[in-house]
Amino acid sequence: MILSPWVTHRRADLWPDPHRFNPDRFESTAAANRHRYAYFPFAAGVRGCIGEHHRRGFAGSTRPPGPPSTEDPADDAVGLLNHLGIDRAHVVGHSYGAMIALSLAATHPTRVRSLTLLEIPAFAGPAGTRFADGMASLTQRYAEGDATFGLEQAAAIACPVLSVLGTASAPLFAEGRAQLHRWFPQCQNADITGATHHLQMQAPGAVAAAIAAFLRNQVAARLDGAQGPRGADTHGR
To answer: Residue 193 belongs to what H/E stretch?
Structure first.
């Protein structure tokens, strides 16, 4: 049996008017009335992804007090790392998850080995302005929170950064990549040919290959750095 998130998340009997943007679908009260597998962005069942969780206040999880924050889920991620006994991790985030990954790296820089940011949005620039205008009510709700990131926060991040972008994606995300390069001149790029914002579902092999190549380079760089002049081992010195 095959379960497809792409198909399931577009079923009109589960998601009325499925192609309309409606964040209220994920309110706790709405989620409580849906089948538990109506929404499964990672996996489902007993062998689901260990990192799968719903952001606070979404899909039946407890709603936090106060306005939305990217720091809260970043702190949640650190709590998971602590629970698993992991000191540092290679962090991958998609869309709003990429914004959370940035917050994680800025507020807990010693816990992040590298950042891979898929389709991070930009809210500064022409496309970002149009997007914000089209989401005025939601934007107002987030404006009351701390959904801001700039040079001051970026200065805390020294780890390698990879930007992954679909070549058919919207200008909002191309502007997001440009913003990353302004913040992180060392930022590397990976383009997924023909993919849109849903690149990890449209071209999972290409996305995985791009991330794997980036991580291999990080491992090779650390190994090279562990060798002294002419290959001398400097461990413990």
So the answer is: none
Question: How far is residue 213's CA from residue 166's CA, in Å, rounded to a whole number?
Answer: 17
Segments making up each domain of the chain, as ranges? 1-65, 69-228
- Residue pLDDT, tens place only, 110-166: 999 999 999 998 865 454 444 445 444 444 544 444 456 778 888 999 999 999 999
Tens-place pLDDT, residues 83-113: 989 999 999 999 888 998 999 999 999 999 9
* Residue 166 backbone dihedrals phi, psi, to 5 degrees: -80, 135
Contact 122, 128 (CB under 8 A): yes
Going by C-alpha positions, the residue among 155, 234, 233, 169 that lies closest to residue 198 is 169
CATH classification number, 69-228, choose in 3.40.50.1820, 3.20.20.70, 2.60.40.640, 3.40.50.2020: 3.40.50.1820
CA–CA separation, 20 and 12 (whole Å): 11
DSSP annotation of 177: H
**Spatial CB neighbours of 35, under 8 Å, sequence gap ≥ 6:** 14
Give yes or no for a contact between 213 and 164, defined as CB atoms under 8 angstroms apart: no
Q: How far is CA 65 from the centre of its chain?
A: 23
